[in-house]
Design goal:
Length: about 400
């Protein structure tokens, strides 16, 4: 098969040639955009799921939908070592520019508020180089969004931004990737601002994406967050959608898969979008002709698995310390032990009790708290419910067992 015509795109956040299995989310978001544009109340949106299920791709697709409606949009990626003010200010600056408000004075006022919001992070006596602003030439507006209390400031900022959007009959959508990495104060402020904006009926929504424990992070910050956001779990693709993700791009290049090949691909990838793209790319390159067969998949599988072992699994495993790696291996061993006993059925994310992990290591659970907490902060594991732990990366346990 011609590698130049290979249609598959295994990359972080890179949109696949066929965005299969996400029609429901895209259609629902179109309804949200229309309702908000008409002044109807609507909740902000939170997407959750494991690594590799396409949350970032879907987040970008939703943003594109907002852009097509001429909304103001901005996107940021949360980081554990960075506060919300600076990245959010940059995102909102872009949103204001996209709105295309005709009144320059009104625009400059909101830009000045954004600048004031951003610069408050540096402090009153900060040096000039630290008085950062996201390319905004308008002077900072003093006394607005610069109190130093992130909750107060964010409410004032989004209120002014929402008023600017309402003037031109449009909306503003703020897209936040890796939302679980926001600090506690920033999460609290964001929830409070969304609550205030919703009550005011202003056309501003937040669309966040993060790991499965993100709802728990939001709920711990504000109890009303369960009613504030609309949660959508993004999971692996069903069989028909996975087949479409492979077949449609191939058909566009005058190629096809046999039914047995599609069955083999689904068995190998588990329906996870990133794995589908990774396997699809290798299978295409190694197949000699169309249609691609189950034998082609079998030949390509070792190379695809080797590439995933290095780029997808290995890069994450390397971030762990020796003690943390022991904990990860113990999680995989605990899952195997549960399956062999048959006394408890593993759930779809293969979460395991923390007590079983401790037993696998022959240690007391309390002594493992530092390793577990560090892995949680690194985003390699998460706790979906009290006393249980799971990998944030699908098939990670299998990788650990095969590369022990």
């Amino acid at each position: 098969m011609d590698p130049i015509r290979n249609p598959y795109a295994p990359g972080a956040g890179q949109r696949p040639p066929e965005l299969a299995g996400r029609d429901e989310q895209l259609s629902a978001f179109e309804v949200v955009l229309e309702r908000v544009s008409r002044g109807r109340p609507e909740r902000s949106l939170v997407l959750t799921g494991l690594r590799g299920v396409g949350k970032t791709v879907l987040l970008n697709a939703l943003r594109s939908a907002a852009v097509r409606r001429h909304w103001g949009t901005g996107k940021l990626e949360a980081r554990p070592d960075q506060g919300l003010r600076r990245p959010l200010s940059g995102a909102l600056h872009q949103a204001v520019r996209e709105l295309g408000h005709p009144q320059a004075d009104d625009v400059d006022h909101v830009l000045g508020v954004i600048r004031s919001f951003a610069q408050r992070d540096a402090g009153a006596n900060a040096k000039l180089r630290d008085q950062w602003s996201p390319g905004i030439e308008a002077p900072a507006v003093r006394g607005r969004a610069d109190s130093g209390d992130i909750e107060i400031d964010l409410v004032e900022l989004l209120t002014d931004l929402g008023g600017l959007a309402a003037d031109v009959g449009k909306g503003v959508a703020i897209f936040i990737d890796e939302m679980q990495d926001l600090g506690p104060d920033d999460v609290s402020a964001l929830c409070a601002a969304c609550h205030e904006i919703s009550q005011s009926g202003l056309p501003v929504i937040v669309v966040g994406a993060g790991l499965p424990h993100l709802p728990a992070v939001l709920s711990a910050s504000k109890s009303y967050s369960e009613r504030l956001f609309k949660y959508q779990r993004i999971d692996r693709l069903a069989r028909d959608a996975a087949d479409r993700a492979l077949s449609t791009p191939a058909e566009d290049e005058d190629a096809a898969y046999t039914a047995d090949a599609l069955t083999a691909m689904y068995a190998a990838t588990g329906g996870y979008p990133y794995f589908i793209q990774a396997y699809g790319k290798v299978v295409w390159d190694l197949a000699t002709s169309s249609p691609i067969t189950a034998d082609d998949v079998a030949v390509a599988a070792p190379q695809a698995e080797a590439e995933l072992a290095v780029g997808f699994f290995g890069s994450r495993f390397e971030r762990a310390t020796p003690g943390e790696r022991e904990y990860l291996h113990a999680m995989a061993d605990a899952a195997v032990a549960i399956a062999e006993k048959g006394e408890e059925e593993l759930d779809d994310i293969q979460s395991v009790p923390t007590a079983d992990v401790a037993a696998a290591l022959g240690k007391k659970p309390q002594s493992l708290s530092p390793a577990r907490d560090s892995l949680l902060k690194k985003g390699l594991i998460y706790s979906g419910e009290r006393g249980r732990i799971a990998f944030t990366v699908p098939h990670f346990g299998r990788y650990l067992l095969e590369h022990a």
